[in-house]
UniProtKB/TrEMBL annotation:
Residues 440-600 form the AAA+ ATPase domain. It comes from Keratinibaculum paraultunense. PANTHER family: 5-METHYLCYTOSINE-SPECIFIC RESTRICTION ENZYME B, TYPE IV METHYL-DIRECTED RESTRICTION ENZYME ECOKMCRB SUBUNIT. This is EVE domain-containing protein. GO terms for molecular function: ATP binding; ATP hydrolysis activity.
Length: 696
């Protein structure tokens, strides 16, 4: 999105009129009254059905319908009198919606509720304890008016998360309860968030419920200081409008110019298609063995030549039909989506894989959904190809998209080499060298002393190669001594029922990259030398090599018989602090798989000098002179050396000016403590440099 348009949209946001909740939609009243009814219920009785009921009071009636919600009320643990009261309120709201008395409707259609959903129950996703935890939060804050008090209570409750809830699902309920306190952080908000970055609204893991209040405070600060509206629904509607504009813009792009994700979406737009559920036994074949866009054949007869069960399903298959790919091990789950690329020829069908699921959809959860109980596969799972009704397919896809959202049709802020050189203080020649090394080796480590901006640089290297600020293609993790293979790749984790196989952050990132093979993805490992590299990477140590990428080098993993490989479009950028004496040097096995790039203090860089002069005037010359002399002393110290010098980022502060007071604070509270560690056995030298740095 160009900057002029971004500026205009931002101005529109700041001047938007407010939205009056009960005039806009009936879900505000329904959520309030549902929480009121729950407050009159014994907390020990509250369970998953009550969380379902509360959640669907915020969700639009186009999901499930009116009777579905009345059934949720009936299945709840509310006292009889509260069920009667709530049903009456719900029916009154529905009648008002039918009479078009709410702003959130038009004269042709009616609905209650403002938000969509990707699932129909928390059963299998959450548990009784977490249902009680979330509902207790709603009850505690329902009568409070002070925003900060509400935030503090919510932050304490949500800091460890609510099982089965992400920011999107929790925020729509909290918003309907307190529309001027809780923003809606859904896909529309996340995709349009770049518009707010110029106002210092920079989200921290926006999908996560654990950071929801942190992100809400940032939005609140912007709203209170710059905007007219109070109800965050106004912002939500604006972001949906922006999203539609982006989609319309993309719709005008010629087919051959469309991005990969859009081609994939349009490929399946076929009328009168069937929907199929295909079982794979990884001991024989696996969806993981199929490349994205690759077709495989599947015979209608088993290894003994006998017809497979429900043989007629093979005869009904048509080209273009959609296939849900299911595997029985290591976890029973839907793992892929594909389509029929070749019709039944009397012996076999052909299936092309369109998408790997980053978050597989587990059998245990699907089997708990009432609307799927009559599914052909659940009635008798013996066989391999099962028919799905359109409704069953849509329910499954809703749940899949809740856990595996597609990449939206959006444009990101452009980011060029010139942008990089303007905000990262290195020379152009070094920039070109870093880019060439990363493209050649696929793995680099930025090493240098504290304060040279290694982590900052790593992300912007990725931006500059992508040509845009696309955080959906970047993942960052920080290694530490307790970080394990199970965190990074996969491993069994304790759950209520025993142990469950969980996929790690790098495994999931590789799946994301596999779904988008025509674009580059960047995995950033901060403090890479703090972890036990051999244990964390395990058998993948070989696969990260630039010439060992791709399916030809796929290998089975420790906890899975399925073969796995690292896609060719993944680049790994590590950072390493050369002044950390508590760590041993990284071993040769890792060293030979990475190129190492030295990051230097930039006190002599012309761009940094200009930056510092703009912020501090004549003080900039004093700062540069003193820091250069300090770094020379550190470099010449036989017990320290170049790797212990002080970096320039200590003076890259988020203020328009750097005053003498700012400088003194940086020296006293950031640099002197570091020097005290360096010269822990020479206190006189620390005092000498403290005097030298603070006096002139």
């Amino acid at each position: 999105m160009n900057r002029d348009l971004s500026y205009k949209i931002l101005q529109d946001i700041m001047t938007m009129d407010d939205v009056i909740p009960d005039e806009h939609d009936g879900s505000y009243e329904l959520v309030r009254e549902t929480v009121e009814s729950l407050s009159n219920t014994d907390l020990h009785r509250i369970d998953i059905p009550d969380l379902d009921m509360l959640y669907f009071m915020a969700v639009g009636t186009w999901k499930g319908g009116v009777e579905f919600r009345l059934k949720k009320i009936e299945e709840s643990n509310l006292p009889i009198e509260e069920k009667i009261r709530l049903k009456s309120i719900f029916n009154n709201v529905v009648e008002k919606a039918k009479d078009h008395l709410y702003e959130n409707s038009d004269k042709h259609t009616w609905s209650v509720g403002m938000f969509g959903t990707g699932f129909y129950t928390f059963n299998g996703k959450s548990d009784k304890q977490n249902a009680q935890k979330f509902i207790s939060l709603c009850i505690r804050i329902k009568d409070l008016d002070d925003d900060e008090e509400i935030f503090n209570i919510a932050e304490e409750t949500l800091k460890n998360g609510i099982k089965g809830m992400q920011a999107a699902s929790a925020s729509i309920v909290l918003h309907c309860l307190k529309p001027n306190v809780f923003p809606i952080i859904n896909n529309a908000m996340i995709e349009a968030a770049v518009l707010l970055e110029s106002e210092d609204v920079i989200f921290n893991r926006p999908n996560q419920l654990t950071t929801y209040i942190e992100n809400s405070r940032k939005i609140k600060k912007f709203r209170d200081e710059k905007c007219k509206f109070k109800n965050y629904r106004a912002l939500d509607m604006k972001f949906w409008e922006v999203g539609k504009l982006e989609e319309e813009k993309y719709a005008e792009i010629k087919e051959e110019e469309k991005p990969y994700e859009m081609k994939k979406e349009t490929k399946n737009m076929v009328n009168n298609i069937n929907y199929w559920w295909l079982n794979a036994n990884p001991k024989i074949w696996s969806f993981n063995d199929i490349e994205l866009g690759e077709s495989i054949s599947y015979t209608s007869r088993n290894e003994r030549g006998n017809k497979r069960r429900i043989y007629k399903n093979f005869e009904d298959v048509k080209k273009g039909d959609i296939v849900i790919g299911y595997e029985s091990t290591p976890v029973k789950a839907i793992v892929a989506i594909g389509h029929i690329s070749g019709e039944y020829d009397g012996e076999r069908i052909w299936i092309e894989k369109d998408e790997n699921l980053i978050e597989p959809l587990e059998y245990s959860y699907l089997n708990s959904i009432e609307e799927l109980k009559n599914m052909e596969f659940f009635q008798n799972p013996q066989g391999s190809l099962f028919k799905l009704t359109e409704e069953e397919y849509e329910i499954i896809m809703d749940i899949i998209r809740e856990q595996n959202p597609t990449i939206g049709a959006k444009t990101n802020e452009t980011y060029t080499k010139e942008d990089f050189l303007e905000e990262v203080f290195i020379e152009e020649e070094q920039y070109e060298n870093i880019i060439n090394l990363l493209k050649y080796k696929k793995n680099i480590i930025l090493q240098g002393p504290p304060g040279v901006g290694k982590t900052f640089v790593a992300k912007r290297i990725a931006y500059s190669i992508m040509g845009e600020k696309d955080d959906s293609r970047i993942e960052m993790v920080q290694f530490h001594q307790n970080y394990t293979y199970e965190d990074f790749i996969m491993g069994y984790r304790p759950v209520e029922e025993g142990f469950k196989l969980k996929y790690g952050i790098f495994y999931q990132f590789c799946k994301r990259a596999l779904n988008d093979p025509h674009r580059s993805y960047y995995f950033i490992i901060d403090e890479i030398n703090r972890g036990n590299i051999s244990k964390i990477f395990g058998e993948l140590m070989m696969l990260i090599e630039s010439d060992k990428r791709g399916s030809d080098y796929a290998i089975p993993l420790t906890y899975s018989e399925n073969k796995f490989y690292i896609p060719e479009n993944i680049y790994i950028i590590g950072t390493m602090n050369t002044a950390d004496r508590s760590l041993a040097m990284i071993d040769y096995a890792l060293r030979r798989r990475f190129c190492f790039v030295d990051m230097e203090p930039a006190f002599d860089n012309l761009n940094f000098k200009g930056y510092l002069e703009n912020k501090s005037g004549d003080l900039s010359n004093i700062i540069i002179d003193k820091m250069n002399r300090l770094n020379k002393a550190i470099e010449n110290d036989i017990s320290l050396g170049r790797g212990f010098r002080i970096g320039h980022s200590y003076f890259c502060i988020d203020k328009e000016t750097i005053t003498e007071e700012d400088y003194n604070n940086i020296i006293k509270y950031e640099i002197i403590p570091l020097l005290s560690e360096y010269w822990f056995d020479d206190f006189d030298k620390v005092i000498e440099w403290k005097t030298e740095l603070l006096e002139w």
